[in-house]
């Protein structure tokens, strides 16, 4: 076990204000692998003051220079990809291959995309007799989750830096080690002192202090809808901006003309990836009643192939939560066709890949975000019924549509109340905006739309 100390504030690792620590546990075997400081209100205040002091110079830095620093950060992340992957595997429990390709790989692409955007974005434009300036919003407080610990930090940090903002990041307490690696990468990339600051700590202490700080101009949060509501209320009371990427209960709609086998297999893979700990996972599979039993058999067979191929969930609380949902599903009349609540191993936070059949739209497992490897398969009668079910939750983050004809799938997707829809297995696009409708959030991440979250506008008339 390694005891880490210090917070990254104003370009250096400095001692924490308090003596509290957070234990980092390997979810696969429940062993404590490290400790990090538990940040206090004083640590947050020091970090915000450093960010505020660094803001004028960084905001005035030419976009081309900001782009160069982001390109350097991308290169450092690429060079340290194996160390990053091994760290994520140790603290999150994800299989090493997933850590290499997704957890370490996607942040490189996102950082690179913002290096290009910073160099090409029109921060000034002429509109009639006005010059419109797109200026940095100021100091950003970024509170990030544990499920994609580095990606979520980069998805907030890179656009903020490209915009000319400075920021303080409070990473999830379950996965702080890769955040510390990122702070080292920022330093190595030559980003000036105070522009990026990192405070590890608990949400109710460090996270709340960051959201409430009067010198934070924008709070960017990714996590549960319940916490997002609290942060939104704090921000509204202080008249500060928020960007919230929250929960999801995404529908995977398989139309009758689709290749059923491919749609089901890809859909199951989507749900099981990262042990189901993905806010945009397609956790509701909608199938026409004429092919429903065939789809259930395919889904059960596909889920049965995962077994040890997925990692554990992040902690004991999450394991118990997921198992509780599985028990509730059976209590409400759903039928388990794969997996179940029983623990597959004695040690570690493992959950069996689980598929429910005979799920109706009003059941808890079809309405609430489980955040584990659990899929619900629902019947529909016709396209209007499928649309009613797909749109019938408080969430609207992502989704999928499958059809034999692409135009048919696109027409259905246009009617879905959700922020992102994959058509016939469309690939992830780091330049496309990501964010939700309804209670799935406010604002967008990634690409040019993600950059605009960190900008404010001023017009000069002459």
Brief digest:
The chain is of the alpha/beta class and 462 residues long.
Q: How much of the sequence is in beta strands?
A: 15-25%
Q: Between the first and last Cα atoms, what is the distance in angstroms?
A: 63 Å
Poorly predicted runs of 5 or more residues:
none
Secondary structure: number of strands: 23
DSSP helix fraction:
40-55%
Shape: globular
Largest sheet: 7 strands, mixed
The structural class is: alpha/beta
Q: Mean pLDDT, nearest integer?
A: 97
Number of helices: 16
Rg (C-alpha, Å): 22 Å
* Strand adjacency order, main sheet: 15-16-17-14-13-19-20
What does this molecule look like?
- The chain is α/β, with parallel strands linked by helices and 462 residues long.
- It contains 16 helices and 23 strands.
- It has helices at residues 41-60, 63-79, 81-92, 96-103, 105-120, 149-163, 177-188, 203-212, 225-238, 260-272, 292-304, 316-331, 364-367, 383-390, 406-413, 447-452; strands spanning 2-3, 7-9, 12-14, 21-25, 32-37, 124-127, 130-136, 139-143, 166-170, 196-198, 218-222, 241-245, 251-254, 284-288, 335-338, 354-359, 374-380, 395-396, 399-402, 422-423, 437-438, 441-442, 455-461.
- The chain has a seven-stranded mixed β-sheet with strand order 15-16-17-14-13-19-20, with helices on both faces.
- Strand 8, helix 6 and strand 9 form a beta-alpha-beta unit.
- The longest helix is centred in the N-terminal third of the chain and has 20 residues, at 41-60.
- The N and C termini lie far apart (63 Å).
- The mean pLDDT is 97.
